[in-house]
Every structure is written in C-alpha cells, then in structure tokens.
C-alpha cells in the first residue's frame, strides 16, 4: 500500500525507512537521482480525484517545505505533485490539506504549469508499487488539548476563526523579503485597485502595502472568484496574507499568491473593533493577531504616507473634481452593454445643477415607491465599461463606495447629451461618471454591515421620512429625475443592415435546407442573429500565421510584463559591433540613459546614413518603457543579451513595437538570426524588411467570431473569420489599437443582436454562407462560414 499514516514517528506496521536521505524541494531538478531520496512538506493544496477509466485515477496536489515561511533564502519551496492509480485514490482518502507528508519513490518531470502558478519548474510524479507516501500525524500533548487552549485564551475570537493547533504562523517583515521564498505577511494598504477581469479566467487585484520597516511592497493577486480577493475599502486598511511568493518585478519586490493562499483584512482606524473580513469559512485568528492589527493601526496613525481624504459628501462636491462617494443605491437601469445608470444618494444635497437624462421606464429596477425628498437629493452616476457589469449585479438599497468618481461638466466628452437647455450665464450641469479601467483605484464595492462608514450613512438615511407616493406621482417623478442619456445621442435609433457582396446567382434557402446540404457549397440565406461569441469582444481579436495556419490568443499586459521582467533579470553585457549605447527621450519623461539594467542601443549603420534613432534596440526594459519609446521612435525592438551578443525576447512577446501597434512572430515558423537590418537603397524601412532581416515570420491580426443564426426553420452556427474585415468595415490591425474601431464593432453586433429584445425586434440579415468539412474526434463534421457579406448603418 503506497500511503501510510505515521503517528508520532511510529506507526502500526509502517515507519519511514531510515536509509532514505531528505532532499530540499529547492534542490530538486530534472537530473536528480531519486532512488534514495525523500521529500518532506506540508500539503497546501489538494486537488480533486479524477477518474480516467476503470481503476485509473489521477490527483494533483502541492506540497511546501515545512519551514519555508521562516526562511527567505530558498527559492522554489513549493512543488506540484501528481499521483496516479492507487496512489492517487489512497491519497484522496487518507490525506488532508495542512497534513505533513514524506514522499519517496517518486520521479521528476518538467512542470508544464510553472510559468502560470509560479511554483517549482519540476513536478514530482508518483505511480506504481515503488511509490511510497507517509502522512505524519502528531498526537496532541496535554498543553495542546482543547481544554488547555480554552483555559489559556479567555478572549473570544470572531465567528469562523480558529486558533492555530500545532504550528505557529511566522510573519516576515517587509524589509526582509528575498526572492523565491513563500512567506506570511502583515501590512498597511497604501494603494489598491479593485479586482478587474483579465483576458483569462481570473480576476486580478493590485495593491501596495507597508509596515513598521517602512518598506513598500507591491502585491498582485489572481483568483477566479471575486469573493476570494482582499476586501479592501480604503487606504489605511490592514491586510494579512498567508503563503505569498516573493518575486522581483521591474527591479522591485512583488508578492504574488500561490497555492494555499489566504487573506484577511481589517479596518485600519484606531479604536474600532478588530473584525476580520474574509470569504473563508474558517481561518486562524488569536490574540497575537489582534495585537498585530492594533500595533499596525497605532503606527500608521502617526505616519504621513496615507493620501489626503478623497471621500466627500455630495454637498461638498466641486465641478470637475474626482472623489470617493459613500452612498446608497436607490435605482438602476441599463443604458447599453457598456453603460449602467445608478441613482444614488448620501443624505446631502448637491448644490450644483444636475444633468437630466432619459431611460425607458420598463428598464428601471428599484422599489415601487420612495419619498419625494429622497429622490430630490439623488444624483445620476453613469458607470462605464468594466464597471458596468459589476453595476448590473447591484441590488437597490445596497450601501456602496464608488472610487474615483468624476463630477463631469462636459457631458459631450462622454457622448452624454444634455436633455434640457441651459440659459446664458447658467453653470454647466453636472453628471457623475465612473470611467472605465482601473486607474487611480476606480471601482464600485458594496460596504459590509460592520463598516463604520456604512453604519454612519445608514443612521443618516434612516432619519429621513419613509412616506410613499401614489403610482401617478411616482411615474411623473421618474420621468423627471431619470432623464438620461444613452452613451451616444442616437444609440437607440442606430440600425444596421447586412447585404451580400458576392456575384453568385443563387436561390435563397432556409437554414434547414442548408443543414441538409453537403460541404463545399455556397448558400444565400436570410436569418436573425440569436447570439454571438465571444461576448467579451476583445477576445475576438486573434493572431494567426499565414504560413502554418495556426491561431493564438493576443497576450495580455500582465503576461507580457512577466516576459519583460524575466528578460531583465537575466540581462548581461552586450558587445555586438553594429550596436552602440545611446540616450533617448521618453515622451513626457526625463531623458533616459543606460542606467540600471535599461540599455538603449542604436544601429550604427543607420546613424551613419542620417537615419538616427529610426530603429531603437531596447535591452533590460519594462513593457511600459517599450511602449513609451514607441510613441517617439518609429521602430522599437526589445532584445536581451545572449553570449555577449543580442537576441530577441521570447516570441510570446512582440518582436517589434511600431507606434501603438505590437507585432508578433510565429514561434513555429521563425528562425531568428539577429543582424542589422539593411537600409541601403531604400527610402524608409518597414516592418516586413525588419522581420525578414531577423528571420521572423510575422503573425497577422484577425477577427474571429461565432454567430448563432436562426430563421424559424433551424438554428445554425457560422464562423465569421475570413471576411470579418469587410463585414465590420474595420481592419483587425485597427481593432487592436483604435478605440473608434472597437466601438464600431460593438455598435454593429449590438444592433444586429439587441440585448433583451424579442425575436420580432431583431433585424433580418441577408448573408452568404459557405460550407466546409472538418475532421474532429475521428469523424467528419460540416461547418459554416459567413463570407461575401457586409454590415452597414441603415440610412434614415
């Protein structure tokens, strides 16, 4: 039996073999001789048991060096372990998370997820009869008994919290962090961004913390569920994180979550109750934790690192100001897919005129009646882009904190038309806007019941009368105060029609007739758009190789930042004869010189030709620095050192920046050879010449969407790929860099598939389809593609 439970070092019939020698996780490599070695660690993550067939199982877990939170010198102290067959099944039944295990009889393989999970680059694999795993369980001593613990601690702990049973958590000062270690930390939040959706499946939180050592450390947290992210409501809150890994990013220390990660936050104001905020059902919390929070509160209160208070009431708002608003949500209504309107109040009256807006009464969600006094004090907040989705899930009556809201006096800049005329000399009306993105901490959070701000606001709003209005009074009032804008003046009237651009003389068929036909045919159809994928339209932008026909996702900035950071860490001297160091200016920044790891290299031949600074080779830079340089120089090529010379970064990153355009290369088809691009005999270099000189096969941008069509006879799924550019009248290259191009695509699909409308309201589309054969799972499938079709705005 491969799994044994060992009690206090001795078991009933099983004991860890004395001839085995322990090897630290950090010293494991793909060439390690494992025959007489064992690994000891704590189970910090236990995955589910997956059945592959009859008695065939697999299970993935993560173990961590027991003492890794006390030592900051070791790198890669956590490692993935994959168990197969009976070992997986017995592990699932016998081992719990937080158990200490001894692993022997394993083999070592490369970890395919190392770049994503930031763990050891190798896996431990256990299968067959030679694999052994010992679970170390220690009997509780008298001093560790539940009765003794109760006697020692007379102060109550919060509901859901539990005291540490055996081992004591150790917390590392932020000034003692060393790259690669997994640690537990406390800190005061000095900056934070609300969680935002990445291009993958996760949400990402970004924050910066400090402690009594006065060291500031950035933190990046990825979790699939919003509720697993830190519950931070204002700068100065206290945060406690367990099992975060130390990385170096852009020359600075950064903490990232790893397996077993947990987080608890506290209000940072001195004197208040120490109430943990967490989504975990159980967590460790005792008197020492309470003292740690109080100590950080007192210390932070005497510091001057926290910014001036940006939280102000509506009665103190000034035009054009950015501020944080604590308020109660009265009503909400969707404007379109990118904007949601919130009607909020905070018990005070805004002294400035407010913009009137109009919405469809049927779209308003809120209570059936409210006092006229409350509605007169309420204001409109337009919530855009990534925040609109969050706003749609809010419930009327909720108490909110809206961060970095803008008291806008120029509604046309947000495509918000005023619906009431303004007399000469009258002040511009205000409309409150939460812009898209996460800059400056923008976002919306629901305040918890124990929040002092929420309790204070609740006392204020409950002091107002609760009298109701008649239905007719409510309708009149709603038409008056919900006077609202769409995002563009004609958003509700804008219509698109589709037409076929081919010269085929074909009879129009129903979708049912099309599905009864074979492959390699062309059809004319008339159908409606029931749905489309992806719903997040930025995901429709792809990279494809015209040579090998491969298609890949466009990397997001979080991934690219990691590629640039890794290249900076391995940067060495460069002595390529056709390159020389130089100095360039970043737009809006001080001149950059070859300081720290950043080296600017210019092609000497081009300098001699009078084309100085047309090409900049950039070494040791961050992604942001490369983007800034691309604003001022025609071509920016990020490189790294390679045996004294230069080489391109991994082709997962752009090999060339040209203005806002990022140009990628195909890993499969490229054969990189670094040499100076030949500028002889040409008036101006272009990206094609640079790619050829470097042996790179450039990837092309493309738009890929799947439309679900229906016409009453059948439903059919069709790809829009080859002719997507002519369909939207937008090139994929423009869609990658231009907001205007992106807006056109969104307006088109919103018009062709209006959300919430019935079948009768959906426009009919005249389309040309082609059918083709695809082999999948050993079977042939007929698929369809939209071709020779164009969507244009209807003429009124």
Roughly how many Å apart are the termini?
A: 78 Å
How much helical structure, as a percent, in the residues? 10-25%
What is the residue-mean pLDDT, rounded to a whole number?
Answer: 77
Task: Give the CATH level 1 class of the largest domain.
Answer: Mainly Beta
Gyration radius over CA: 31 Å
Main β-sheet description: 10 strands, mixed
Strand content: 25-35%
Shape: globular
Q: Helix tally?
A: 16
**Low-confidence spans: pLDDT under 50, at least 5 residues?**
9-14, 68-74, 139-155, 163-167, 412-424, 467-493, 580-613
Oligomer: single chain
Number of domains: 5
The second-level CATH architecture of the largest domain is: Beta Barrel
- Any idea what the CATH superfamily of the largest domain is called? Nucleic acid-binding proteins
Structural class: alpha+beta
Q: Enter the CATH topology name of the largest domain.
A: OB fold (Dihydrolipoamide Acetyltransferase, E2P)
Number of strands: 43
Describe it.
The chain has 796 residues and is an alpha+beta fold. It has five domains: 135 residues, Beta Barrel (OB fold (Dihydrolipoamide Acetyltransferase, E2P)), CATH 2.40.50; 134 residues, OB fold (Dihydrolipoamide Acetyltransferase, E2P), CATH 2.40.50.140; 168 residues, OB fold (Dihydrolipoamide Acetyltransferase, E2P) (Beta Barrel), CATH 2.40.50; 134 residues, Beta Barrel (OB fold (Dihydrolipoamide Acetyltransferase, E2P)), CATH 2.40.50.140; 145 residues, no CATH class. 17% of the residues lie in helices and 34% in strands. Strands 1, 2, 3, 4, 5, 6, 7, 8, 9 and 10 form a ten-stranded mixed beta sheet that branches. Strands 25, 26, 39, 40, 41 and 42 form a six-stranded mixed beta sheet that branches. A five-stranded mixed β-barrel has the order 12-13-14-16-15. The chain is globular and about 85 Å long.
């Amino acid at each position: 039996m491969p799994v044994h439970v060992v009690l206090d070092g001795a078991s009933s019939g099983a004991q860890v073999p004395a001839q085995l020698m322990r090897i630290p996780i950090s010293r494991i490599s793909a060439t390690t001789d494992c025959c007489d070695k064992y690994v000891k660690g704590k189970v910090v993550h236990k995955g589910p048991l997956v059945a592959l067939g009859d008695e065939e199982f697999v299970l993935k877990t993560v173990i961590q060096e027991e003492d890794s939170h006390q030592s900051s010198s070791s790198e890669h102290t956590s490692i993935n372990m994959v168990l197969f067959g009976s070992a997986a099944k017995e592990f699932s039944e016998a081992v719990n998370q937080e158990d200490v295990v001894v692993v022997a009889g394993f083999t070592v393989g490369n970890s395919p997820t190392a770049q994503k999970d930031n763990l050891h680059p190798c896996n431990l694999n256990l299968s067959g009869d030679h694999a052994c795993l010992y679970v170390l369980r220690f009997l509780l001593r008298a001093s560790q008994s539940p009765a003794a613990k109760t006697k020692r601690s007379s102060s109550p702990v919060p509901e859901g919290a539990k005291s540490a049973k055996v081992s004591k958590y150790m917390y590392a000062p932020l000034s003692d962090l060393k790259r690669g270690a997994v640690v537990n930390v406390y800190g005061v939040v000095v900056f934070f961004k609300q969680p935002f959706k990445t291009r993958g499946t996760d949400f990402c939180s970004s924050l910066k913390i400090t402690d009594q050592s006065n060291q500031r450390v950035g933190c990046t947290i990825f979790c699939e569920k919003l509720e697993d992210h830190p519950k931070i409501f204002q700068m100065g809150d206290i945060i406690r994180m367990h099992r975060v890994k130390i990385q170096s990013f852009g020359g600075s220390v950064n903490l990232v979550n790893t397996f077993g990660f947990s987080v608890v936050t506290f209000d940072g104001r001195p004197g208040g109750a120490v109430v943990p905020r967490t989504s975990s059902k159980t967590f460790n919390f005792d008197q020492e934790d309470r003292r740690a929070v109080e100590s950080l509160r007192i210390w932070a209160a005497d510091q001057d690192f926290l910014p001036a208070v940006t939280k102000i009431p509506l009665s103190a708002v000034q035009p054009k100001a950015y501020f944080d608003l604590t308020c109660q949500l009265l009503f909400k209504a969707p404007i379109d897919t990118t904007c949601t309107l919130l009607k909020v109040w905070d018990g005070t009256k805004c002294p400035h005129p407010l913009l009137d807006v109009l919405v469809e009464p049927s779209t308003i969600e809120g209570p059936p009646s409210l006092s006229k006094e409350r509605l007169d004090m309420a204001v409109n907040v337009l919530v855009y882009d990534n925040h609109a989705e969050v706003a749609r899930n809010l419930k009327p009556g909720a108490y909110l904190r809206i961060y970095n809201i803008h008291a806008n006096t120029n509604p046309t800049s947000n495509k918000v038309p005023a619906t009431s005329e303004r007399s000469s000399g009258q002040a511009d009306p205000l409309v409150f806007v939460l812009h898209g993105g996460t800059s400056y901490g923008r976002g919306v959070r629901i305040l918890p019941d124990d929040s002092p701000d929420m309790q204070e606001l609740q006392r204020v709003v409950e002091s107002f009368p609760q009298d109701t209005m008649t239905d007719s009074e409510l309708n009149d009032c709603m038409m008056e105060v919900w006077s609202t804008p769409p995002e563009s003046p004609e958003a509700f009237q804008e219509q698109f029609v589709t037409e076929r651009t081919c010269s085929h003389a074909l009879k129009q068929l129903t979708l049912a007739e099309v599905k009864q036909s074979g492959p390699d045919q062309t059809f004319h159809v008339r159908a409606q758009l029931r749905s489309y994928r992806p719903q997040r339209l930025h995901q429709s932008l792809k990279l494809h190789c015209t040579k090998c026909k491969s298609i890949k996702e466009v990397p997001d900035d979080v991934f690219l930042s990691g590629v640039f950071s890794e290249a900076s860490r391995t940067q060495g001297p460069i002595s390529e004869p056709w390159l020389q160091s130089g100095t360039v200016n970043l737009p809006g920044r001080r001149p950059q010189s070859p300081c720290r790891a950043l080296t600017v290299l210019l092609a000497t031949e081009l300098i001699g030709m009078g084309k100085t600074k047309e090409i900049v080779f950039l070494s040791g830079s961050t992604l942001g620095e490369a983007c800034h340089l691309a604003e001022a120089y025609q071509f920016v090529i990020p490189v790294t050192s390679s045996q004294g010379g230069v080489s391109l970064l991994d082709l997962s990153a752009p090999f060339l920046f040209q203005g806002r355009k990022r140009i990628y290369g195909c890993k499969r088809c490229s054969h990189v050879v670094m040499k100076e691009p030949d500028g002889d005999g040409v008036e101006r270099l272009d990206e094609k010449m640079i790619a050829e000189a470097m042996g790179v096969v450039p990837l092309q941008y493309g738009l890929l969407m799947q439309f679900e069509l229906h016409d009453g006879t059948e439903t059919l799924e069709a790809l829009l790929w080859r002719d997507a550019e002519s369909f939207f009248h937008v090139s994929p290259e423009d869609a990658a860099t231009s907001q205007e191009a992106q807006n056109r695509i969104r307006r088109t699909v919103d018009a062709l598939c209006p959300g919430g409308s019935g079948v009768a309201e959906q426009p009919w589309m005249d389309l040309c389809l082609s059918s083709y054969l695809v082999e999948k799972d050993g079977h042939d499938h007929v698929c369809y593609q939209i071709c020779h079709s164009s969507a244009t705005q209807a003429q009124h």
